[in-house]
Write a structure and sequence with these properties.
69% helix; globular; 8 helices; mainly alpha; single chain
Length: 154
Protein backbone atom coordinates (compact mmCIF):
# COMPACT_ATOMS: atom_id res chain seq x y z
CA UNK A 1 0.00 0.00 0.00
CA UNK A 2 1.26 3.46 -0.81
CA UNK A 3 2.22 5.95 1.95
CA UNK A 4 -0.60 8.37 1.10
CA UNK A 5 -3.21 5.68 1.75
CA UNK A 6 -1.51 4.73 5.02
CA UNK A 7 -1.48 8.38 6.10
CA UNK A 8 -5.17 8.86 5.32
CA UNK A 9 -6.22 5.65 7.08
CA UNK A 10 -3.80 6.45 9.92
CA UNK A 11 -5.36 9.83 10.61
CA UNK A 12 -8.86 8.33 10.60
CA UNK A 13 -7.75 5.56 12.97
CA UNK A 14 -5.95 8.03 15.25
CA UNK A 15 -8.99 10.28 15.51
CA UNK A 16 -11.24 7.33 16.32
CA UNK A 17 -8.81 6.14 19.02
CA UNK A 18 -8.57 9.70 20.39
CA UNK A 19 -12.33 9.92 20.92
CA UNK A 20 -12.93 6.35 22.10
CA UNK A 21 -10.05 6.12 24.58
CA UNK A 22 -9.71 9.80 25.53
CA UNK A 23 -5.95 9.89 24.97
CA UNK A 24 -3.88 13.06 24.67
CA UNK A 25 -3.15 14.90 21.43
CA UNK A 26 0.51 13.88 21.79
CA UNK A 27 -0.41 10.20 22.12
CA UNK A 28 -2.76 10.54 19.15
CA UNK A 29 0.02 12.09 17.07
CA UNK A 30 2.38 9.26 18.03
CA UNK A 31 -0.14 6.72 16.75
CA UNK A 32 -0.73 8.73 13.58
CA UNK A 33 2.94 9.23 12.69
CA UNK A 34 3.85 5.64 13.51
CA UNK A 35 1.00 4.41 11.30
CA UNK A 36 2.73 5.62 8.15
CA UNK A 37 6.33 6.50 9.07
CA UNK A 38 6.96 2.78 9.55
CA UNK A 39 7.41 2.79 5.76
CA UNK A 40 10.66 4.68 6.29
CA UNK A 41 12.33 1.26 6.12
CA UNK A 42 11.44 1.13 2.40
CA UNK A 43 13.33 4.38 1.93
CA UNK A 44 16.29 3.06 3.99
CA UNK A 45 16.40 -0.01 1.70
CA UNK A 46 16.41 2.26 -1.35
CA UNK A 47 19.24 4.41 0.05
CA UNK A 48 21.26 1.33 1.00
CA UNK A 49 20.90 -0.31 -2.41
CA UNK A 50 20.94 2.73 -4.71
CA UNK A 51 23.15 5.12 -2.70
CA UNK A 52 20.64 7.83 -3.60
CA UNK A 53 18.91 10.08 -1.06
CA UNK A 54 16.02 11.61 -2.98
CA UNK A 55 12.72 10.76 -1.30
CA UNK A 56 10.88 11.63 -4.50
CA UNK A 57 13.06 9.31 -6.62
CA UNK A 58 12.69 6.53 -4.03
CA UNK A 59 8.91 6.88 -4.08
CA UNK A 60 8.63 6.67 -7.86
CA UNK A 61 11.26 3.90 -8.05
CA UNK A 62 9.29 1.76 -5.60
CA UNK A 63 6.01 2.61 -7.31
CA UNK A 64 7.44 1.48 -10.67
CA UNK A 65 8.93 -1.70 -9.19
CA UNK A 66 5.65 -2.46 -7.44
CA UNK A 67 3.75 -2.33 -10.72
CA UNK A 68 6.26 -4.63 -12.45
CA UNK A 69 6.36 -6.94 -9.41
CA UNK A 70 2.60 -7.52 -9.40
CA UNK A 71 2.60 -8.26 -13.12
CA UNK A 72 4.58 -11.40 -12.23
CA UNK A 73 2.87 -14.59 -11.11
CA UNK A 74 3.27 -15.64 -7.48
CA UNK A 75 5.58 -18.44 -8.66
CA UNK A 76 7.75 -15.94 -10.57
CA UNK A 77 7.93 -13.60 -7.55
CA UNK A 78 9.22 -16.48 -5.43
CA UNK A 79 12.36 -16.61 -7.59
CA UNK A 80 13.57 -13.21 -6.33
CA UNK A 81 14.95 -11.77 -3.10
CA UNK A 82 12.73 -9.67 -0.86
CA UNK A 83 13.93 -6.46 0.78
CA UNK A 84 14.78 -6.32 4.50
CA UNK A 85 12.06 -4.10 5.96
CA UNK A 86 13.25 -3.59 9.52
CA UNK A 87 10.16 -1.83 10.90
CA UNK A 88 7.80 -4.37 9.30
CA UNK A 89 9.33 -7.24 11.29
CA UNK A 90 8.27 -9.07 14.41
CA UNK A 91 11.79 -8.56 15.71
CA UNK A 92 11.18 -4.77 15.74
CA UNK A 93 7.71 -5.16 17.27
CA UNK A 94 9.15 -7.22 20.13
CA UNK A 95 11.60 -4.38 20.84
CA UNK A 96 8.67 -1.91 20.90
CA UNK A 97 6.74 -4.16 23.30
CA UNK A 98 9.74 -4.36 25.63
CA UNK A 99 10.35 -0.61 25.43
CA UNK A 100 6.68 0.05 26.20
CA UNK A 101 7.26 -1.41 29.66
CA UNK A 102 9.94 1.24 30.18
CA UNK A 103 8.10 4.20 28.63
CA UNK A 104 4.44 4.47 27.62
CA UNK A 105 5.39 6.44 24.49
CA UNK A 106 6.47 3.19 22.84
CA UNK A 107 3.03 1.70 23.44
CA UNK A 108 1.44 4.39 21.25
CA UNK A 109 4.11 3.90 18.59
CA UNK A 110 3.38 0.17 18.72
CA UNK A 111 -0.35 0.83 18.27
CA UNK A 112 0.37 2.87 15.13
CA UNK A 113 2.74 0.21 13.80
CA UNK A 114 0.20 -2.56 14.45
CA UNK A 115 -2.50 -0.57 12.67
CA UNK A 116 -0.16 -0.13 9.69
CA UNK A 117 0.62 -3.84 9.66
CA UNK A 118 -3.06 -4.75 9.85
CA UNK A 119 -3.68 -2.70 6.72
CA UNK A 120 -0.61 -4.26 5.05
CA UNK A 121 -1.79 -7.78 5.90
CA UNK A 122 -5.27 -7.08 4.52
CA UNK A 123 -3.61 -6.00 1.27
CA UNK A 124 -1.25 -9.00 1.31
CA UNK A 125 -4.18 -11.42 1.55
CA UNK A 126 -6.22 -9.47 -1.02
CA UNK A 127 -3.45 -9.53 -3.65
CA UNK A 128 -2.28 -13.04 -2.70
CA UNK A 129 1.26 -11.97 -1.83
CA UNK A 130 3.62 -13.87 0.47
CA UNK A 131 3.27 -13.13 4.17
CA UNK A 132 6.87 -13.54 5.37
CA UNK A 133 8.50 -10.44 3.78
CA UNK A 134 6.48 -8.25 6.11
CA UNK A 135 6.78 -10.45 9.14
CA UNK A 136 10.33 -11.52 9.99
CA UNK A 137 13.80 -10.36 9.02
CA UNK A 138 15.19 -13.77 9.86
CA UNK A 139 12.64 -15.46 7.62
CA UNK A 140 13.47 -13.08 4.75
CA UNK A 141 17.18 -13.80 5.26
CA UNK A 142 16.58 -17.56 5.07
CA UNK A 143 14.23 -17.36 2.06
CA UNK A 144 16.53 -14.96 0.16
CA UNK A 145 19.41 -17.41 0.05
CA UNK A 146 20.74 -17.93 -3.49
CA UNK A 147 18.07 -15.79 -5.15
CA UNK A 148 18.75 -12.87 -7.50
CA UNK A 149 17.37 -9.37 -6.91
CA UNK A 150 14.30 -8.31 -8.83
CA UNK A 151 15.75 -5.64 -11.12
CA UNK A 152 16.55 -3.69 -7.97
CA UNK A 153 19.57 -1.86 -9.23
CA UNK A 154 18.56 -0.76 -12.72
Amino acid sequence: MLPKTHAILGIIFSIVVFFIFNISIFQTLLIFFASFLIDFDHYMWYVYKKNEYSVKKAYFWFKGKRKKWFNLSKKERDKYKRPFLVFHSIEFWIILVLLSFINKIFLFILIGVLFHMTIDYIEIFRIKERFYPKFSLLWVFIKNEDKPHFLLFK
